[in-house]
């Protein structure tokens, strides 16, 4: 990959661009000076289809100057804007800068729309139909790709419409999750648990915590091994929202259900990430989105 991180491609792009413009200029000069010998009737002597004669009239001057202006414009553009490899241009224009400026402008225009919600508690915002309509659009544009349009999630992506929360379902906790993002890590535990049979026994004990179908004999053998899991999930298996450790007693399985899924989790571990939205959304937008998400699992309280 070193050839993609060196200066070669920058020089290559700049060289091709400049050579292309210079070649066009030389072509214009060459064709302007070249004279075609003509006959006394001002033709080149070329005749097609019997009566189509090629005349030797010069190119219209305005046409030639239009071509010259195009070349001058190209050189001026490359001087002012990026186009010559790594050269950033005299105006230091960038696509990212243009995008950021447009986002700032759009947020300023939308500010009056969110102003009425600034002093309202999240629970009250969740009762406002206008706020929920805005929250629905924000959710569809920024969250539905992972959590689904109905917010019920899928394998690896939490269901936001129930009362099961990895990091807590209070408004301030939801706001922090959206604003800062979350990173959940389940380290591979096979070395601490023991051999393959010990892992299977532990998987059955984990299944027994939620009343799921399990082998009671294997579950009894695996109970002792659960001590390596208790540091995060607690001795009772009810999880720890401060760590984002799931509750293993509620029969809700984020990464798959059954013995094989649990064995794979113990053997390989898992890392999940909820990206921070603070770079994309304003604080007011995150507040409205928080109210919308909170309202999904608190429908009676959120009903207008």
UniProtKB/TrEMBL annotation:
Main location: membrane
Gene3D superfamilies according to UniProt: 6.10.280.130, Cytochrome c-like domain
Example of a GO cellular component annotation carried by this entry: plasma membrane
Subcellular location: Cell inner membrane
PROSITE patterns: CYTC
Binding site for heme c 2: 186, 229, 232-233
Any one GO molecular function term: heme binding
Transmembrane segments: 12-32, 62-81
CC cofactor note: Binds 2 heme C groups per subunit.
Complex formation: Component of the cbb3-type cytochrome c oxidase.
Protein family according to the UniProt entry: Belongs to the CcoP / FixP family.
Biological role stated in the UniProt entry: C-type cytochrome. Part of the cbb3-type cytochrome c oxidase complex.
Protein's recorded name: Cbb3-type cytochrome c oxidase subunit
Organism encoding this protein: Diaphorobacter ruginosibacter
Taxonomic classification: Bacteria, Pseudomonadati, Pseudomonadota, Betaproteobacteria, Burkholderiales
Gene (name only): ccoP
